[in-house]
Amino acid sequence: MAATSPAVRQLEDALIARLRACATFRDLLSAHGHAVRLCLSRSSYVATQIVHLCNAHGRAAHAARVFAQVPDPNLHLYNAMIKAYAQNHLHRDAVEVYVRMLRCLPPPWGGGGFSGGDRFTYPFLLKACGGLAAVELGNQVHAHVVRSGCEAHDIVQNSLIEMYTRCGDLSLARRVFDGMRNKDAVSWNTLISAHARLGQMRKARALFDSMSDKTVVSWTALVSGYTAVGDFAGAIEVFRLMQMEGFEPDDVSIVAVLPACAQLGSLELGRWLYAYCDKRGMLRKAYICNALMEMYAKCGCIDQALQLFHGMPDKDVISWSTAIGGLAAHGRAREAVRLFEAMDREGKVRPNGVTFVGLLSACSHAGLLDDGLRYFDSMKDAYGVEPVVEHYGCLVDLLGRSGRIRRALDTVRGMPVPADAKIWGSLLSACRSHGDVDTAVVAAEQLVELEPGDVGNLVMLANVYAAARRWGDVARTRKEIRSRSTRKTPGCSMIEVDNVVREFVAGEDLGPELGGLAAVLDILASQLAAHDEEFVDSDWWVDANVFASD
After folding, report:
1. Which pLDDT belongs to residue 497?
2. Which keywords label this protein (predicted)?
3. CA distance 136 to 126
4. Average pLDDT, the chain
5. Among 120, 163, 402, 514, whose CB has the most other CB atoms within 10 angstroms?
């Protein structure tokens, strides 16, 4: 390639200075046009800067047009284009640019060596391989990393770990990790996050405990992992340990722990998190407010959730859906419907599938049959939302609660996807409420077929057969229950006292410190019986002997 003359270099430097001063994409387009007029758009030096700026504005398509104008791109321009594609999730395009680079770039120093990339090429190329979850392609790129002599760079090694974890091959990721001389926080956090993401919390915790210099990212990865696998108490415990170690939670760690607060009903911690976010100005972020709203709604504080919602300057579809679903879950169905109508009138945000689950659930609980049917029909036609099994479940529940048992059964049988156990359970509940024994038998038999391991379904089926006076089927079902030698999973409940969540399991010994609850339950049961003799029925009887006494 011919050397650039001093005059051309001076023009290029002036143009680069103008490009770096561009604040908007419109400014960039103007500077690009100036480069074309000066016949500098074919310069790799200028084109590289334009591609970087296009990437910063999320304009990968324009970056590709700039790249295509350069007849002989140099390594820097190839790297910029691979980075732009990878960071804009155009992973296949990034790989194709690399393949073209291998074919077109001459070997280094004019010899017959490997004409691969450098330490700036491979981090983004490996990101593309991970985005494609293409482990075989990643293996080939790994070989190129070794051949090009870039394997010793920490950033490349961390990228290899990330690529293998994204491809689900943690054994190769661990091999790269173990071979690193200088493991930094990124190396540790990547591997911890990968194990947590796959639900391998023992391995994640073992790595975490062996990490000497933990960061807030390390703690957050552990909190997220425990939340994802349903160990909500573990998530809150790790979050508290993080604070005790002197780490201040960031927005990511707060969003990670809030679902655990919601599931356990840990309202005091949730309120502290709200105050923490308010003090640090985090309530301007929609995703923080959405997580707080969901926590308040699931902890029974729907008014606080609504206060947050109405104070949000920019509401997204998650904000609206959370508020609508929260109102529906708290029995304030008509408010949920009015909120949906307000969302529709405002027109800034289009509802999605989650929005309609909350809306249809509200209609079901309020007995708004006509409105519910109208909203269900409008999902696809007016909003382009294809109904899925959750929406059909709400529709079946709506019809069942309204006494339209036969239509509900027809809906289940006509669904484009197979009905799940929740739908058949909802139909069974409606049958029991409205005395439709024949349909109840159908629903109960389907439940047993879908969940054969749940002995509770067999118990319900035996009761349904008894209501239908099918005594032979009753005997057969009860015999099957006895043959399994299984027990129904005991019910449990949780309560937060003094910022500690306690779990109570039916039939469990409470211990001496809580044995006095038995006496309180006796008093409550007697008071309920005095108000209404129906509560004396065996189905409602509270057996105080289950609990330990002082």
Report:
1. 61
2. Repeat, Transit peptide
3. 12
4. 87
5. 163
Cα dihedral sign, 387-390-395-396: positive
Which tens digit of pLDDT belongs to each residue from 425-477? 999 888 888 888 888 889 888 988 898 877 877 888 788 888 888 888 888 88
Cβ(319)–Cβ(286) below 8 Å? yes
Residues 6+ apart with CB under 8 A from 477: 458, 461, 462, 465
State residue 483's pLDDT score.
78
CA nearest neighbour of 442 among 455, 415, 423: 423
Distance CA 219, CA 397 (A): 42
Identify the residue whose tokens are 């309560």.
495
Task: Kindly compute the dihedral angle of the four CA atoms of residues 160, 162, 168, 174, in this order, to the nearest 10 degrees.
Answer: 60
With 0-12 / 13-18 / 19 or more C-beta atoms within 10 angstroms meaning exposed / middle / buried, residue 228 is: middle
Q: What is the pLDDT of residue 11?
A: 86
Helices (H) and strands (E) in the chain, counts: 29, 2
Statement: residue 226 has pLDDT above 50: yes
- Distance CA(230)–CA(381), nearest Å, equals 37
What's the rounded Cα separation, in Å, for the pair 97 and 187?
Answer: 27
Beta strands in 431-533 (DSSP E): 492-497, 500-505
> What whole-number distance in Å separates Cα of residue 88 and Cα of residue 81?
11
pLDDT tens string 291-302: 999 999 999 999
Cβ atoms 170, 164 nearer than 8 A: yes
Q: What span, in angstroms and rounded, lies between the C-alpha atoms of 215 and 226?
A: 17
β-bridge partners, 503: 494
| Sequential DSSP letters for 303-358 | HHHHHHHHH-SS--HHHHHHHHHHHHHTT-HHHHHHHHHHHHHH-SS---HHHHHH
Task: With H, G, I as helix, E, B as strand and everything else as coil, classify residue 372.
Answer: helix
* CB of 285 closer than 8 Å to CB of 250: no
DSSP 8-state symbol, 118: -
What's the rounded Cα separation, in Å, for the pair 449 and 430?
Answer: 19
Q: What is the mean pLDDT of residues 31-56?
A: 92
Q: CA 201, CA 193: separation in Å to the nearest integer?
A: 10
Q: Is the separation of the CB atoms in 291 and 316 below 8 Å? A: no
Neighbour-count burial for 360-373, b at 16+ CB within 10 Å, e otherwise: bbbbbbbebbebbb
